[in-house]
């Protein structure tokens, strides 16, 4: 995305590359050291543990274990809940992002601040807050009880997990979409209107296609943590809402590092393939996580 | 810019009674397509348009000309439906359209910097309006091909609009607007982002397209040369008001006030007194002129164009001055001459040396008399003139736009 913008904006190009100074040459050094120590090395360990047993002997048992019913059910449940949460985030977040981007600059600042405010609090605390809200004796149910409704049993169901995911990750959907929309040239909207589009036509023909890169970023940023989450399902879900993240965590606490590693590796690979496909179909324009 | 071409027009000054009435309706004929009636508009309490009234004829090329902030773009946006006037009415084909949204107007716009849809290729950009109107794909294909031919972009169908040059994007923008067969095409400084050479070519091309299609063009620019060379009618605007409406030759030869005289071309604007009909006194000399109808001894502004002053020997001159600077401009020299402390700009093909004392001769038809206005004494003296400053002021204008 950034690459394209550099060329398209008034055709201005960056200065030709100059001879690199000392600072430029070594500016990336801390990042490289960091990457090697905390990303590449651990990944090698993960791969190593995935393909060995507790005695360090090569085996495919950990990998094949994933493809048994026990793990597949949990994996597909994770995918299902994450997809539902992502869809809800998109349906809620897109109009919100549109609304914010169309309001006055001052209002925009306030609304974005309100959106970010909950994110300044710890995820765990927010998840506990949702627990208090939805439990059988919680605020929502005691409010509904005044009208003779309920109590609706939410806590411990898949619904509660989805609510938790949506609540925790909604800002990650809104922010990238808002950021793309707020940069949208108002003249394009006027041009569409000038060429015969009514309000909905402008949204469908111009605003949506041009905000697609934001949508893809948003979807990625909600889907990935939703699939791999474990504390949301632990706090809000029940026995039958165990997610793949929970299983990984359980294996780790049980000191079964080989199984932990193989589950992580497979999940990571599946996510990478999925994102690569999404990015491919978005013309490589979707400011997603893939290069 | 040479004067010769208008010898005849200059003498038509005697028919001044035919000048447009002050209500701004040039169109006495019945083929007016747009009428603005007493339009006022302000943004955040800043008045932008102040009681604008104007008629636009069908099939004409009309230009709104003025410095930035004069309200020309706002006027265009009111016609396009992107702004609505605070006071006043907009009529289109006799119907009031104040509250009609842009997508319901028979008007299309070529935007400043083109505003092409970056997610669509050339073909889809041009076909946009027809697709909204649910025209059949076969007809769309035919019409897009025809449009591409009109704007000289054959074979560009599949190109990515983001990778086109400025001139090509410009053509796509024109095709995208024209394909809908609007009754009126609005052009908001469409050539502003192009380099000089390309701008000149596009001026000719735009004028040809306008003649070929017969569509009314409403053109906004701050470039007076562009306005003069393309338009049938020029509307000069300043400070949210219409200063003058007329043909390019009228505007150039018979500016109504010091603002118009200064903005269109180069002008020496001098304080003078109209002694009687055909006799004016300025710069310490009494001249014969072609203007009449002023009161006896009425103070007036005199305009003398730099190319209309002849440099002669001192003894033959009506005025005498000292050359304070000489600039070679290719076709002619541009010299600044100090006459009793007032700096005149004169264009001459004969070389004169700096510090030389020369005589100046002014023919009666080179003198144009204007009534005093709020713009008197604000323009017309070249004592602070320099090319560099002129250039700088152009840049700031670009930034504001």
Tell me what you see in this structure:
The complex is a heterodimer of chains A (291) and B (401). By secondary structure, chain A is mainly alpha-helical. Chain A has a single domain, classed as MetI-like (MetI-like fold), CATH 1.10.3720.10. Chain A is 73% helix and 0% strand. Chain A contains 14 helices and no strands. The N and C termini of chain A lie close together (10 Å). In chain B, helix 3 (122-132) packs parallel to helix 5 and helix 4 packs across helix 5 (166-178). In chain B, strand 11 and strand 12 form a beta hairpin. In chain B, the strands form four sheets. Chain B has a six-stranded mixed β-sheet, with helices on both faces. In chain B, strands 13-12-11-14-20 form a five-stranded antiparallel β-sheet. Chain B contains ten helices and 20 strands. Chain B has two domains: 19-253, P-loop containing nucleotide triphosphate hydrolases (Rossmann fold, 3-Layer(aba) Sandwich), CATH 3.40.50; 266-400, Nucleic acid-binding proteins (OB fold (Dihydrolipoamide Acetyltransferase, E2P)), CATH 2.40.50.140. Chain B has 401 residues and is an alpha+beta fold. The longest helix of chain B has 18 residues, at 196-213.
Brief description of this entry?
The complex is a heterodimer of chains A (about 290) and B (about 400). With about 290 residues, chain A is mainly α.
**Poorly predicted ranges of chain B:** 1-23, 391-401
Please name the two chains that share the biggest interface, counting residues whose Cβ lies under 8 Å from a Cβ on the partner chain. A-B, 23 and 29 residues
> Uncertain runs of chain A with pLDDT below 50, 5 residues or more?
1-13, 284-291
**First-residue to last-residue Cα separation of chain A:** 10 Å
Number of helices of chain B: 10
Summarize model confidence as the mean pLDDT of chain B: 85
In CATH terms, what is the fold-level topology of chain A?
MetI-like fold
- C-alpha Rg of chain A (nearest Å): 23 Å
Which fold name fills CATH's third level, the topology of the largest domain in chain B?
Rossmann fold
Total DSSP helices of chain A: 14
CA radius of gyration of chain B is 24 Å
């Amino acid at each position: 995305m950034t690459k394209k913008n550099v060329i398209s904006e008034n055709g201005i190009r960056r200065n030709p590359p100059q001879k690199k100074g000392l600072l430029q040459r070594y500016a990336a050094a801390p990042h490289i050291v960091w990457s090697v120590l905390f990303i590449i090395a651990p990944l090698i360990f993960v791969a190593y543990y995935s393909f060995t047993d507790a005695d360090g002997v090569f085996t495919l048992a950990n990998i094949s274990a994933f493809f048994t019913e026990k793990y597949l059910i949990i994996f597909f449940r994770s995918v299902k809940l994450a997809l539902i949460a992502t869809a809800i985030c998109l349906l809620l977040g897109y109009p919100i992002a549109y609304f914010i981007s169309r309001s006055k600059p001052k209002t925009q600042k306030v609304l974005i601040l309100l959106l970010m405010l909950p994110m300044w609090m710890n995820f765990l605390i927010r998840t506990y807050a949702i627990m208090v809200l939805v439990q059988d004796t919680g605020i929502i149910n005691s409010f509904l009880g005044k009208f003779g409704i309920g109590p609706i049993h939410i806590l411990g169901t898949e619904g509660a997990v989805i609510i938790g995911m949506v609540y925790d990750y909604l800002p990650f959907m809104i922010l990238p979409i808002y950021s793309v929309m707020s940069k949208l040239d108002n003249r394009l909207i006027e041009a569409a209107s000038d060429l015969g589009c009514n309000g909905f036509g402008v949204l469908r023909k111009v605003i949506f296609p041009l905000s697609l890169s934001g949508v893809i970023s948003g979807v990625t940023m909600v889907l990935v943590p939703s699939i791999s989450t474990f504390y949301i399902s632990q706090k809000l879900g029940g026995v039958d809402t165990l997610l793949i993240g929970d299983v990984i965590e359980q294996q780790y606490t049980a000191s079964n590092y080989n199984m932990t590693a193989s589950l992580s590796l497979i999940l990571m690979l599946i996510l990478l393939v999925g994102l690569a496909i999404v990015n491919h179909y978005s013309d490589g324009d979707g400011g997603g996580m893939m290069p | 810019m040479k004067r010769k071409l208008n010898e005849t027009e200059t003498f038509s000054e005697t028919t001044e009674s035919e000048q447009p009435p002050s209500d701004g309706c040039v169109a006495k004929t019945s083929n007016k397509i747009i009428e603005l009636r007493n339009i006022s508009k302000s943004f955040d309490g800043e008045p932008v348009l102040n009681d604008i009234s104007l008629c636009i004829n069908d099939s004409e090329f009309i230009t709104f000309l003025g410095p930035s902030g004069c309200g020309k773009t706002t006027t265009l946006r009111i016609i396009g439906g992107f702004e609505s006037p605070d006071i006043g009415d907009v009529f289109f084909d006799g119907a009031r359209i104040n509250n009609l949204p842009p997508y319901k107007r028979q008007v299309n716009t070529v935007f400043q910097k083109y505003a092409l849809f970056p997610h669509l290729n050339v073909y889809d950009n041009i076909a946009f309006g027809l697709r909204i109107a649910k025209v059949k794909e076969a007809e769309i294909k035919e019409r897009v091909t025809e449009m591409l031919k009109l704007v000289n972009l054959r074979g560009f169908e599949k190109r990515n609009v983001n990778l086109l040059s400025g001139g090509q994007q410009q053509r796509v923008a024109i095709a995208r607007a024209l394909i809908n067969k609007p009754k009126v095409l609005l052009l908001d400084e469409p050539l502003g982002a192009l380099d000089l050479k390309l701008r000149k070519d596009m001026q000719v091309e735009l004028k040809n397209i306008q003649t070929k299609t017969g569509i009314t063009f409403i053109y906004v620019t701050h470039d007076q040369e562009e306005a003069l060379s393309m338009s049938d009618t020029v509307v000069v605007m300043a400070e949210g008001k219409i200063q003058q409406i007329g043909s390019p030759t009228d505007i150039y030869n018979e500016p109504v006030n010091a603002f118009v005289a200064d903005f269109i071309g180069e002008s020496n604007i001098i304080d003078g007194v109209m002694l009687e009909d055909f006799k004016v006194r300025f710069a310490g000399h009494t001249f014969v002129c072609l203007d009449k109808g002023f009161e006896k001894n009425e103070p007036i502004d005199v305009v003398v164009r730099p190319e209309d002053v002849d440099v002669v020997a001192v003894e033959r001159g009506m005025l005498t001055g000292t050359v304070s600077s000489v600039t070679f401009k290719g076709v002619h020299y541009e010299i600044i001459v100090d006459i009793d402390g007032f700096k005149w700009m004169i264009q001459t093909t004969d070389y004169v040396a700096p510090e030389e004392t020369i005589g100046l001769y002014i023919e009666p038809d080179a003198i144009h008399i204007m009534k005093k206005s709020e713009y008197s004494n604000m323009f017309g003296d070249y004592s602070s003139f320099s090319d560099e400053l002129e250039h700088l002021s152009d840049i700031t204008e670009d930034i504001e736009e």
